[in-house]
Each structure stands twice: as C-alpha cells, then as structure tokens.
Design a protein that fits this description.
By secondary structure, this protein is α+β, with helices and mostly antiparallel strands. 24% of the residues lie in helices and 29% in strands. It has 2 domains: 4-163, 2-Layer Sandwich (D-amino Acid Aminotransferase, Chain A, domain 1), CATH 3.30.470; 173-343, D-amino Acid Aminotransferase, Chain A, domain 2, CATH 3.20.10.10. The radius of gyration is 21 Å and the shape is globular. Bound molecules: pyridoxal-5'-phosphate (PLP). Pyridoxal-5'-phosphate (PLP) binds next to helix 5.
C-alpha cells in the first residue's frame, strides 16, 4: 500500500526545547488510515489538525479505543533512534484483539511511522533527556448507538516533542497503596492499552494526589492483596537482592520497559523473579530491613524510584527515600542504549 502525502502549507514555530513538558506540542503532520468494508485502506500523511466526527461516533460512547506510547531519540551524531518499536506494534495488535478491533499490519505501520518521523525530523529534540513521544491510536467510528464492534475505524499516529522527565536527575516519589479502587480485574482489559482503563483510574489518582502522593500502587481486583502496577507503570521491588515484579496475567500491562529491565537484570546475573507479591509480604520485608529498593518503570519515566509507601495508615520509607543502586544502574543503561551512547547489545535499536 502506498502512503499518500499532503504537506502542510503552514509549518508551526517549534517550541523552545527547554520548555517542552510532556504531550503539549504536536508536530506539523500526522499519519491516518481508515478501516471499512473489511480492510485497512487509504494510508496517508496529512497536516496535523482536528478530526470531524459525528456526535453518534461509537468511541465517544463505548470507548472502543486502544493506543500505544513510544519514543524516538536524537543521538549525538544526529541519527534518530527508536527503542524496540516492533514490541509496540505487536502489543497494539494484542490490544486490538481484546477490544474487537481489526488487526493492523505491524511491519507496514512501522514503515509508516518512520516515514512520518522523517518528514517531521526537525521536531525531534536533541537536549539530554528530551525525545519525540509517539502516540499511535485506533478508534471505532460506527455511527449507530447500538453496542457492537464498529464496522469502521480510524488509526492515527501523532508526534509530540517532549522534555526531560527528570529535570534534575531521577528522584524518588511517594506512592499511595490504593485499598479500595482497582485498575483491572482477572478477565478484564487490564493487559490491553485500552483507553477506558485510564478513565477508570482517575478517581484513585486524584485521591492519592490529595493525600500528597505522586501515584497510586494498584492491588489486584479480586482480593486487593497482591501488588500489580504503579500508576501507568509496571513495578519492581528489591527484596534481599532479588528483584521481584508481578507476573503477567490479564490484569497487568506487559510493559516494554518491564521486559527490558528483566533482560538487563538477567544479563547482569541479578536474580529477577516474576511472581505474585502480597502487600503484607512487602511491608513485612520492610520491617525486617529486607526491602532494599522499589521502582516503577515505563516509557515516559524509564525508571521512577519509590521513596515512600502509604498503606492503611502505615507509612514506610524505602532506602531512606533515596534512589537505589540498581534503579540508577537500570536507568543509566536504558537511557544510554536509547540515546545511542551505549552499545546496543540486545538489538533493541531501530534507526529511522
Ligand atoms: C503503557 C503502560 C505501562 C508501561 O509500558 P511500557 O511499554 O514500558 O511503556 C505499564 N502499565 C500501564 C497500565 C501502561 O499503560
């Protein structure tokens, strides 16, 4: 399939790299493709701009929508690098299957993404820590109010130059262990990057923030006993030198960063376990002085150390509220590979 191109006639002024923030600016172009009559069709790159959709459009009512989040980095030599993009494409199709959205051709979409980035290459920032955030998403655009899988869809990719997540080096955050609300349940949509999951998490996020915490630590939906994720990140705990992350079921999002962390730890001969971890076990380990570090991991922050946990009136500080040694080592390794400063020993890098 050929990708048609309509270039903007009104390029925007680029924002100052020091004031990018996250997800606030968008590049000059976007990629679009439609699904109808059983086929993805009409792939095109067009000027970035609003969509016109009928008020009955199904995604507004029933949230048949999935998305991805990934980044492109500017290497010191000027090349533009993607980090494990084929993983995001594969996960997009996993999410599609769960939400009854027709699958996309992963290789084709990756080529389309590269073409879009090449066109807007001047928008990839170069200051340390900055990146071009990439947001592919698919929405159901049925114009009938019945609840059913839409017969028609739109797939878009938009690009957003984003600032360094950490302005002054990585620093640990305080986390509220949510005792009541849950993010996902067994048999639900938690393992898919489905838009509706995030709306459902907002109330708990707001309550945690009102209590002075940066994020929520989610417990499982059945017993509210086992740790699952932190905010929209996967989570790891260092207990006695063993790095433990919750095993993947259908209520934990399979993060690309989580998988990269596991591979790095194993390559360093640090024990890395995927298993159920009860919140009581975590607090008991802390009481015995065995909880050495904790961190969230995801594309946005890479590694986000946890300095404090609050659960049912108990507050604990982890590693004296400082960034752990392994957390820092993982952060340096992943950001080093992403930016091309360190050798790509795992074959994780794709040049645009
Ligand atoms: C996207 C996401 C993650 C992290 O996935 P990465 O591929 O590492 O960015 C973890 N949990 C949730 C709920 C997410 O949406």
């Amino acid at each position: 399939m050929d990708i048609s191109l309509v270039k903007t006639t009104a390029p925007k002024t680029k924002p100052n790299e020091a004031e990018l923030g996250f997800g606030r600016y968008f590049t000059d172009h976007m990629f679009m493709m439609d699904y109808s009559k059983g086929e993805w069709r009409d792939p095109r790159i067009v000027p970035y701009g609003p969509l016109q959709l009928d008020p009955s459009t199904s995604v507004f009512h029933y949230a048949q929508a999935v998305f991805e989040g990934m980044k492109a980095f500017r290497a010191e030599d000027g090349r533009i690098l993607l980090f494990r993009p084929e993983q995001n494409m594969a996960r997009l199709n996993k999410s599609n299957r769960r939400l009854c959205i027709p699958e996309i051709d992963e290789e084709f979409l990756l080529e389309a993404l590269k073409k879009l980035i090449r066109l807007d290459a001047d928008w990839v920032p170069s200051q340390p820590g900055t990146s071009l955030y990439i947001r592919p998403f698919i929405i159901g655009v049925d114009n009938v109010l019945g609840v059913r899988p839409a017969p028609t869809y739109k797939l878009l990719i938009i690009l957003s130059p984003s600032g360094a997540y950490y302005e002054e080096g990585i620093n640990p955050v305080s986390i509220y262990v949510e005792p009541h609300y849950v993010r996902a349940v067994r048999g639900g949509t938690g393992a898919a990057k489905a838009a509706g999951n995030y709306a459902g998490g907002l109330l708990a996020q707001r309550l945690a923030s009102e209590r002075g915490h940066a994020q929520v630590l989610w417990l499982d939906g059945l017993e509210r006993r086992y740790v699952e994720e932190v905010g929209a990140m996967n989570v790891f705990f260092n207990i006695d030198g063993e790095l433990i992350t919750p095993d993947l079921g259908d209520s934990v999002l399979p993060g690309v960063t989580r998988d990269s962390v596991l591979q790095l730890l194993r390559s360093w001969n640090i024990p890395a376990l995927e298993r159920k971890l009860a919140i009581d076990e975590l607090f008991a380990a802390h009481a015995e002085g065995r909880l050495l570090e904790a961190f969230g991991c995801g594309t946005a922050a890479v590694i986000s150390p946890i300095g404090r946990l609050e659960y049912k009136e108990q507050v604990i500080d982890i590693n004296g509220g400082r960034t752990g040694e392994i957390s820092q080592r993982l952060y340096d390794a992943i950001t080093g590979i992403q930016s091309g400063r360190l050798p790509d020993e795992f074959g994780w890098i794709t040049e645009v």
